[in-house]
Amino acid sequence: MIYALCLILIVIGLYAVVTKKNVVKIVIGLAIAEYGINLLLILIGYRKDGWAPIVSPDMDPAAFAASSVDPIPQALVLTSIVISLGVLALMVALCIRLYERYGTFDVTEMRRLRG
Amino acid sequence: MDILIVLMVLMIVGAIIAVETTNLLSSIVCVGAVGFLLSIAFLFLGAPDIAITQLVVEILCLIILIRATISRDLTAVSGDREFFGLTVTLATVLAVAAAGILCMADFPAFGQSVMDRITDPPAASSRYLAAGLEKTGAANIVTSVLLDFRAYDTLGEATVLFCSILGALAVLRRKARRRESEETEGDE
Amino acid sequence: MENAIPLFVAIPLGTAFLIPMIARKLKWAPDLLGNAAMLGLCAMAFATVGQTGIYHMGGWSTLGGFKTPLGIDLRLDGLSSLMLMAVNLIGLAAALFSVDYMKRYTDKGRYYSLFLLMVAGMNGVVLTGDLFNLFVFMEVAAISSYALVAFGCEHDELEASFKYAVLGSVASAFILIGIALLYGITGTLNMAHAAGNLAGGGLPLLLATGLFMCGFGLKAALVPFHAWLPDAHPSAPAPVSAMLSGVVIKALGVYVIARLVFNIFGPAHELLTIVRWLGVVSMIVGVFLAIGQWDMKRLFAYHSISQIGYVALGLGLGTPLGIAGGLFHMVNHSVFKSLLFLNAGAVEHASGTRDLKRLGGLNKGMPVTANTSLVASMSIAGIPPFNGFWSKLLIVLACIEAGRPWLALAAVLVSLMTLASFLKVQRYAFFESARAALSQVREAPLLMRSAMLLLAALCLIMSLLVVTGLESPLLIAPAVQALSGVFGSS
Amino acid sequence: MSELPANEGMSLIVQTVTRWLKAFILLFGVYIVIYGHLTPGGGFAGGVIVACSFILLTLAYGQRRGLKAVSRGVAGEMDSVGALIFLAVALAGMIAGGAFFANFIETGEAARFTLPSAGLIPLSNIGIGLKVGMSLFLVFTVLSAMHVAVSGSRRRMISRGEDDR
After folding, report:
1. Is residue D164 a part of any domain in this protein?
2. Is A115 within the bounds of a domain?
3. Does the pTM exceed 0.90?
4. Which chain D residues are closer than 8 Å to C13 by Cβ?
């Protein structure tokens, strides 16, 4: 159920990428898909009633290891968030430059290249 | 985890509005809302590190997106491009989603992390939780994974950011080409 | 050598970080540092021949008597070594070419920095033994290539770059979902360890496989996923086109597909069939689209799709001979396709156009460019004794050996059509009588010429590799072994 | 909002609040960076917060004031320096610890849960924080400067009655 909702979020993002005319909408679609993927990773790493993977001095190490959530997906998501931020900055730069050249955000009017 | 389902339904609603609204500014604001909901969801899922990072990155994304689009034609360009026609596209997307959901039904149940399922030999994450503090000295196991066990990934991630910023600066420079006569001269 | 493996990534990264800092004060620094770094990397890549080894990042291998790999492993074997040589050699040629060619653009410092980041990303991809690490370095290479395609900031460059960036990001999204699912199934990101934990993956594993094939198929521009390539590759500056067509689609696409299919999923029958048919379709569609083009670089770009099809066909046969042919053709294609793009760059540099209808008679004014492009054209069309002939021969023989004569026939026919379209390029660009506007063309500067000569010489030298045996050519045999052998952990 | 020229900043209320807040936000970012190995957060989150403090300054007071705090040249250099620090940590591990990224500083049991624990991790965090903070601020200023240039040139184009479509 939860995984299905997460996939729906990803698919909404990809749908926007495929169908939208506005370049900013396409970028937004990619961002939504990235959200969905990050959530999927964290969901995979979740453990029922899990703790955050941070040790405090008064914790029993064995209990901590037995009930903390998975740290690897969290590290991966941190990396993936930063990567999507980088891609977003680059794509926004491209959008601005495209706007300057074509005077529009409409992707169907940017047709210098023939298919 | 009922709260999680509520959050995710809200996120889906936000995403649909963001994709379908005609006003670009409201679309961006909706993406921001989805991002903040995501951050709260991370908090419930035992990932405070990610929640903080998601929150601040979301703020920055919003600022960048709004700056990029503000005072341009916010409403003029909307609607879909003729790809295959809307029905076919929708059908394809729905079919893909249905196939994905069908496949995910076989996926290990939510809440069953790899550490519970894979014990012989134990999954790497259980080893990190058991020995991370002792081996790296960092109380935050995510940091110890990020900057010690898998520090090489983090180098790659810092490089990605460096690279995209450099790329954005290169794309946005004022004059990209020289004229013939300028070719022999020095830089800028 | 084993201890120096991380330097393949560290050297280009360090240089790339350093260049923007000093480029403002020292104008000569980007050229010098960029080429010096590439020269060093190239020498190091050749030193890896015949070496194998696993490097544990941060010294983390296993802990406390358990066999779980903890850190990120780098893995050097025959295939990685082959790819390293291809990437860094083509990189060196492109960097040499850039010294004069990139004078037309401003901001050389950022150009070299992005170029080195792209090389670092590819070196990272071919060396890594970890799935997520592969994703990260793939993004490094991909993002720098998006920026490099748009480097000229003109209409079509920006448009091509945006298209490339969107499709590339979708591919990355697919790949990341695949990695997430694979992690959920196997509990590890280490490729060798994951390969041993796949049993009982069921439907989620099928989904992950499909996502990987779509994602890496997009990166490799195999036919249903090729839409971005004919825009992105011609729009970039010539040395970048050479890198993109020559090595990027291979290091990020075909190489990873080969690793996944043979080393992780195991040479399962269905997957190989998919790879083979993707290859055949790309081969045929690519050449048909190419033959009608009049823009020189666009024509070459469509041929990249077609030639990648040959590589996928060879790999998809799954027999040792087929894999050898596929890998050999992959390396050969790196050499001659980058040479062709550099030729196109030299022509554009001298005449200001790359439209075949407006060119002609260039072999008088530009003998080096004309002759090297003749060598490259003969190579890609599969004329003996150049290297393309031998690898195509291997693939055709492998098709017949595997009992698929129709595929062999298709490969031969596509090769004939390739010959036809390159005869057209030769005739219109170099041989037809000179046009008045082009009578004053000058040959390209020394460094550009030497880069082209280096690659043309390689076209001949590479064909000598088969002297050591048609079944197992030098350098290729260890790579084949790396794919067909057991992918053991540490 | 769209009438507001991007170069001039916002109202007095925003400016006053910003004057009070900017130092605290910066300090909070630095804290998140330095304590990354003990508490949630780390180099990236902290770096983004540092960038946000400068971005807030730019938004409230205008481009000029923001660039007075950190000029583009300095931001670009700090970006490289941060990345080089991180790479240097990795190479130091290679030379002193025998493997790329080896964490060769042993801090021992006693230092656990205090600031100087975890060997090279805090240093890596500082490098990343510097890199992320400066590079994001840099890209923000360039994006908004471009925005001003574009809308300016567009206005001129419209006033001359031509269109580049």
Report:
1. no
2. no
3. yes
4. 83, 87
B168 touching A, CB under 8 A? yes
Contact D139 A109 (CB under 8 A): no
Which chain C residues are closer than 8 Å to A26 by Cβ?
A: 166
DSSP string, C124-191: HHHHB-BHHHHHHHHHHHHHHHHHHHTTT--HHHHHHHHHHHHHHHHHHHHHHHHHHHHHHHHS--BH
DSSP notation for C263-278: IIS-S-HHHHHHHHHH
Beta-carbon separation of B70 and D1 below 8 A? yes
For chain D, how many structural domains are there in total?
1
Based on the fold, state whether residues B4 and B68 are members of the same structural domain.
yes
Shared-domain flag, residues B19 and B68: yes
Closest CA relative to residue C300, chosen from C474, C123, C486, C429: C429
Number of domains making up chain A: 1
**Is D113 touching A (CB cutoff 8 A)?**
yes
| Nearest by CB: C58 against D73, D87, D100 | D100
Q: What is the CA radius of gyration of chain B?
A: 23
Contact C211, C173 (CB under 8 A): no
A-chain residues near B129 (CB < 8 A): 53, 64-65, 68, 71
Structural domains of chain B, count: 2
A64 found inside a domain: no
Q: What is the pLDDT along chain C (490 residues), one digit of tens a residue?
A: 677 888 999 999 999 999 988 888 888 888 999 999 999 999 999 998 888 888 888 777 776 667 778 888 888 988 999 999 999 999 999 999 999 898 888 888 899 999 999 999 999 999 998 999 999 999 999 999 999 999 988 888 899 999 999 999 999 999 999 999 999 888 888 888 888 888 777 888 889 999 999 999 999 999 888 888 998 999 999 999 999 999 999 999 999 999 999 888 887 778 899 999 999 999 999 999 998 888 899 999 999 999 999 999 999 998 888 999 999 999 999 999 999 999 999 998 888 888 888 887 888 888 899 999 999 999 999 888 888 998 999 999 999 999 999 999 999 999 999 999 999 988 888 887 767 667 777 788 889 999 999 999 998 888 887 777 666 677 788 888 888 776 654 3
- Nearest CB among A27, A75, A86 relative to B146 is that of A75
The verdict on a CB contact (< 8 Å) between C177 and A37 is: yes
CA C314 vs CA C264, C308, C404, C414: distances in Å: 19, 10, 12, 14
ipTM: 0.91
Report which DSSP code applies to B80: B
The helix (H) or strand (E) run that includes residue C362 is helix C362-365
In this structure, are B1 and B69 located in the same domain? Answer: yes
Q: Is residue D101 part of a domain?
A: yes
Identity of the residue numbered B6: V
Q: Residue A13: which CATH number?
A: 1.10.287.3510
As a dihedral over the C-alpha atoms of residue C64, residue C65, residue C67, residue C72, rounded to 10 degrees, the angle is 30
Note whether residue A56 is domain-resident. Answer: no
Q: Which residues on D lie below 8 Å from C20 (Cβ)?
A: 76, 79-80
Same domain, B118 and B69: no
Which residues in chain C have their CB less than 8 angstroms from residue B144's CB?
none
Domain limits for position D86:
12-159
Residue D79 in any domain: the answer is yes
CB spacing of B167 vs A74 below 8 angstroms: no
Q: What is the C-alpha to C-alpha distance for residues C390 and C469, in angstroms, rounded to an integer?
A: 11
The answer as to whether A83 is a domain residue is yes
D158 and A CB contact within 8 Å? no
Q: Which domain holds residue A94?
A: 2-48+69-109
- Taking CB atoms and an 8 Å cutoff, what residues of chain D touch C10? 87, 90-91, 100
Residues near C298 by beta carbon (within 8 Å), at least 6 away in sequence: C230, C234
Quick check: is D83 in a domain? yes
Contact A112 C184 (CB under 8 A): no
Distance from CA of C139 to the nearest CA of B (A): 7
Put simply, whether D165 touches A (Cβ < 8 Å) is: yes
